[in-house]
Design goal:
The complex is a heterotrimer.
Chain A lengths: L1 H7 L3 H6 L1 E14 L2 E14 L3 E5 L6 H8 L8 E9 L2 E2 L5 H10 L1 E4 L3 H4 L6 H10 L5 H14 L5 H5 L8 H14 L4 E5 L7 H18 L2 E6 L2 H7 L2 E6 L2 E7 H6 L4 H9 L46 E4 L2 E4 L6
Parallel strand pairs in A: 3-8, 3-9, 6-7, 7-8
Antiparallel strand pairs in A: 1-2, 1-4, 4-5, 9-10, 10-12, 11-12
Helix pairs in contact in A: 6-7, 6-9, 7-9, 9-10
Chain B lengths: L1 H5 L4 H18 L1 H4 L31 H37 L1 H16 L2 H12 L3 H10 L3 H14 L3 H8 L4 H37 L11 H7 L1 H5 L4 H28 L29
Helix pairs in contact in B: 2-4, 2-13, 4-5, 4-7, 4-8, 4-10, 4-13, 5-8, 6-7, 8-10, 10-11, 10-13, 11-13
Chain C lengths: L1 E13 L5 E14 L4 E5 L6 H9 L6 E6 L2 E2 L5 H8 L2 E4 L3 H4 L6 H12 L4 H14 L16 H13 L5 E5 L7 H18 L2 E6 L2 H7 L2 E6 L2 E7 L9 H13 L6 H6 L27 H5 L5 E4 L2 E3 L6
Parallel strand pairs in C: 3-8, 3-9, 6-7, 7-8
Antiparallel strand pairs in C: 1-2, 1-4, 4-5, 9-10, 10-12, 11-12
Helix pairs in contact in C: 4-6, 5-6, 6-7
The chains are: A alpha/beta, B mainly alpha, C alpha/beta.
Chain lengths: 334, 299, 319
């Protein structure tokens, strides 16, 4: 942890220069019977290599769509409306589907929410891991060695046993770790973890996070952790990006965002997991997230915001730098 | 309005709907569409080829095929649909009861159904029909009572998996009596399955009617039905009169196919999962939380 | 008072043709919940806490032992008697979407229990349903909606309202927060606190989230592999005795990044495999993961022992 933080305190300019992932103006749309639903709106993001970014938001905030979009995955009828995504200087959106398939895995891997569906039930873990490697041109012998090495790396006591077991023989946490081993064995420089802990128990959760942290240190890959749980973000992330209604509303270093949130939404989110509220109950956010196909004018959060004024309901707030973080709000806390 | 409803549906469904609608309309309007009588024998005009005056030709005793087809359709569809309603209703309740109550009752009910399935269907129908005597009403009941087993088995399987689902468990906890659980929850959720079995069954029962009529136990040969027209024309095929069997055969195929396509589509539409709009993964929030917020919000 | 006495439930896990594994989902659990209490039950997936919940409300039959609700036996009740007991205890399921019929409207869902027990007029029924919906913080307009038209939080509110319609004394909540967003979890937790006061409820709150249990419950029972290993009052949680309880507490601190050494701690090999791929031992089931355990532990089953008023621990070493 200490090591990780000191790494982050290198000059900020360099990070901008050698951004591993750069997204500009990304908009993803889904046509629906009720009108066009813009799941991601005008998203900008620069991510340096070796960084863990937590993408935080409620369900329907567009965080999962963003995660998949980075790998060029948008489920039809959804489509990329505008914007550009580049990973390590390569444009993702201009690749052909075949190139994209080969590129995925080697350069960027994804870890899904449900460890049960990540593996095929009828093949052993080992067979699937070896196949993932051989598909990218590794010979079978070294693929097997590599697989064992990574299974050991993710903390299995007995990799030989895991390699010959079927997915259903493992617990959720173990399956998730085995899947991480599979993703990591291809040595991607970017990993997208889409709610990797929601299906797991507490012990498995903390273990998984520690593992992600460790992976970042040993391979210096970047990790985008998609989650709705701020507590989780607090534990491991270097940077936090808070999304609301498809937009990034706040983005900055984890310590800053979590200790001095500038955006009222971030503040409210933190309040709702503050278990030691002096008033007794938990603070909650009133109302419901907006329907993406029918957004209110002005700031999307305004109807639920305790700080909102007339301006908020008329004009969309601009991005601006606020206490070291980018914040999209007319009336940020400073 | 009907056109509005049809928009956006698959082509096969559109064609099926049109075909079925056309067949039913023609059957209902039979007297207006043909000047002939379906029963009167006209020995002066036997084996007329299709075309001249007789749209689909005449049969071995000079009756107009087109006319008999229209009137015969009334009987065939009536038998097909009504017997299927009997078999569906009976089979669904039988299966749901067996699956939901389980235990030894389930074993008993299912062995009875298996026994009936094991007997040749035709034999069973022949015996019952021989006892009950010919006639359209008897035919409907006989076909209905000998074809419910498949529905019962399918519904039972469906119910067995449904009853482990949380919402059924919740209903049990809320004190809902088993009769109401079956009628309010289990059967409505089995509708997609029931729809498929039923539509396939309509085809079967039209064929059953044909076979029984052919064996002289269903519709008396002088009264037209698609089944006995088809069977009656068999001998004439040797003599080159292909049209006598062809048109009733076509009518049966068209009707059965249309019904099966519609049944398939019905299963899709009735599928409860389809109600969730797949395009918007975020659920539509039309009903906001009211003004009463829970305490502790600090407001 | 709600009492479970020495409950046992064993499932037969059938692998295809090969072997029949017996899984002791609930293995000799006894607990008693006083009226007005909020009883928390915490444990990892597969520890049998959901089975215990189902045993307590009578959805499953115990192989041995009994469930007593106000002196009447739930596990033996049949017919009319069962219906009467059912009015006293209700279960709130983990996923409200799965727990409600998706083909009928909220109004029909809500009136089902009323139809079962009372003969109200239509208008009367409507008023009652409306008042329950308002009690859980919903607008009465949801009555016309289907479950898929509501958000996760709204669904859980409807599910709560439905289980309140029979005015039960006891409410068993089986992971009611697990399917919800964190921000919504807070809303539902607050609502639970409110409803408890308003309807004078007794909760058995089952969760794997130590935070939520700690927040809501006054007594916490920790379950490991079909057995309750520790029962303690909330305010004593920081002084928990059983090694497994401490393991859970540590993992929480680690997760929130409150411990310096969390990385090494969490990566200790085999740590998480506790409770999974479990070898049946004659003794304490936690022994194989426990740093205090010795031969004696793995040979003898520890029983729950009272160490203070309302504090019981099943451990050989830490007493």
């Amino acid at each position: 942890m200490v090591l990780a933080l000191s790494k982050q305190q290198e000059p900020a300019n360099d990070i901008r220069l050698e951004a591993l992932l750069s997204i500009s103006g990304l908009t993803v749309c889904f046509p629906t019977p009720r009108g066009l639903c813009r799941a991601v709106r005008d998203l900008d993001l620069q991510l340096a290599s070796g960084t863990i970014l937590a993408l935080v938001g409620e369900s329907g905030s567009g965080k999962s769509v963003t995660g998949k979009a980075i790998l060029g995955l948008v489920e039809p009828p959804g489509y990329f409306a505008s914007g550009e995504i580049a990973v390590a200087g390569e444009s993702v959106l201009s690749k052909t589907p075949e190139n994209l398939r080969l590129w995925r895995g080697v350069k960027a891997g994804i870890i899904f929410q449900d460890p049960a569906s990540s593996f095929d039930q009828v093949f052993t873990i080992g067979a699937q891991m070896v196949e993932a490697l051989t598909a990218h041109g590794v010979d079978v012998g070294s693929a097997r060695r590599e697989t064992l090495k990574w299974l050991d790396g993710v903390g299995f006591r007995d990799p030989e046993r895991i390699i010959s077991s079927y997915p259903f023989e493992l617990s959720g946490g173990m399956r998730q770790r085995a899947y991480i081993a599979m993703v990591m064995s291809l040595r991607p420089s970017l990993i997208i973890a889409d709610e990797p802990t929601t299906a797991l128990d507490m012990l498995a959760q903390s273990r998984l996070l520690a593992l992600l942290q460790q992976m970042r240190q040993t391979t210096s890959c970047s990790i985008i952790l998609i989650t709705h749980d701020l507590g989780l973000a607090a534990g491991i992330a270097d940077e936090v990006l808070v999304m609301y209604a498809g937009q990034a509303v706040e983005h900055g270093e984890a310590r800053n965002v979590l200790s001095q949130p500038a955006h009222p939404y971030t503040r409210a989110l933190i309040g709702s997991v503050n278990w030691n509220n002096p008033r007794g109950g938990l603070a909650t956010i009133p109302g419901q997230p907006p329907v993406l196909s029918d957004l209110p004018p002005g700031c999307a959060f305004a109807p639920r915001c305790s700080e909102a004024v007339a301006l908020c309901k008329q004009e969309e707030p601009p991005d601006r730098l606020q206490t070291g973080a980018i914040c999209r709000c007319h009336r940020p806390f400073i | 309005m009907i056109l509005d409803q049809m928009r956006g549906r698959p082509l096969a469904v559109k064609i099926s709907l049109i075909a079925l609608g056309l067949i039913i309309a023609m059957i209902l309007l039979a007297p207006l569409l043909t000047p002939y009588d379906p029963i009167t024998v006209d020995l002066a005009h036997v084996f007329q080829t299709p075309g001249t005056g007789h749209l689909m030709g005449t049969d071995s005793v000079g009756r107009d095929i087109f006319c008999r087809l229209l009137y015969g359709g009334r009987v065939s569809l009536l038998v097909g649909v009504l017997s299927m309603i009997i078999s569906t209703v009976f089979g669904s309740f039988y299966g749901a009861l067996s699956g939901y109550l389980g235990g030894s009752l389930d074993a008993l009910l299912m062995r009875v159904a298996d026994a009936m399935l094991a007997l040749p269907n035709m034999l069973l129908m022949l015996v019952i029909q021989a006892i009950a005597g010919p006639g359209v009403f008897n035919l409907i009941v006989v076909i209905g009572l000998t074809s419910w087993m498949q529905t019962a088995r399918m519904v039972r399987a469906e119910v067995l998996s449904l009853k482990e689902r949380d919402f059924i468990k919740a209903s049990m906890l809320l004190g809902t009596p088993w009769r109401r659980i079956i009628t309010r929850h289990l059967l409505p959720h089995s509708l997609p399955t029931i729809a498929v079995v039923t539509t396939v069954g309509v085809g079967h029962s039209i064929m059953s009617e044909a076979s029984l009529s052919f064996l002289g136990l269903g519709i008396p040969p002088f009264k037209p039905s698609w089944g006995n027209m088809l069977m009656g024309g068999q001998n004439s095929i040797m003599m080159g009169a292909w049209w006598i069997s062809l048109f009733p055969g076509l009518a049966i195929v068209m009707t059965v196919l249309s019904i099966i396509y519609l049944g398939d589509y019905l299963q899709l539409v009735l599928n409860p999962r389809r109600i969730v709009d797949p395009a918007t993964e975020q659920r539509s929030v039309m009903y906001g939380i009211g003004s009463i917020e829970t305490a502790g919000t600090g407001k | 008072m709600l009492k479970a006495c020495d409950l046992h439930k064993t499932y037969c896990q059938r692998s295809f043709l090969i072997k029949h594994d017996l899984v002791k989902a609930v293995d000799g659990v006894s607990l008693s919940v006083m009226p007005g209490q909020t009883f928390g039950l915490i444990g990892e997936t597969g520890c049998g806490k959901s089975t215990l919940a189902r045993l307590m409300v009578g959805l499953e039959h115990p192989d041995a032992g009994m469930v007593l609700i106000d002196e009447s036996r739930l596990d033996r009740a049949k017919g009319r008697q069962l219906r009467d007991v059912r009015k006293k205890i209700q279960l709130v399921f983990q996923d409200p979407y799965l727990a409600m019929d998706s083909r009928i409207t909220i109004w029909q869902i809500m009136k089902e229990p009323l139809d079962n027990f009372f003969q109200f007029s239509e208008q009367d029924e409507q008023d009652r349903v409306a008042s329950f919906l308002i009690d859980v913080g919903l607008d009465t307009s949801v009555m016309k909606a289907y479950t898929h038209e509501l958000s996760g939080g709204q669904r859980q509110r409807v599910a709560l309202a439905r289980s309140l319609t029979l005015l039960p004394k006891y409410l068993v909540l089986d992971e009611p927060l697990a399917s919800l967003d964190v921000s919504v979890q807070a809303q539902i937790l607050n609502l639970l606190v409110n409803l408890k006061e308003r309807f004078e409820l007794t909760y058995i709150f089952i969760s794997h989230d130590l935070n939520a249990v700690q927040h809501l419950c006054d007594t916490i029972a920790v379950m490991f592999f079909g057995k309750i290993v520790e029962v303690l009052p909330r305010f004593e949680l920081s002084r928990a005795v059983h090694p497994y309880t401490n393991m859970l507490l540590e993992s929480l601190e680690r997760r929130e990044g409150q411990r310096e050494d969390w990385l090494e701690q969490a990566l200790a090999k085999g740590h998480e495999e506790a409770g999974q791929n479990h070898d049946e031992t004659p003794g304490c089931s936690f022994a194989q993961y426990c740093s205090y355990a010795d031969m004696y532990c793995s040979a003898n089953i520890p029983a729950l022992k009272q160490i203070k008023d309302g504090w019981q621990v099943a451990c050989w070493k830490k007493l």
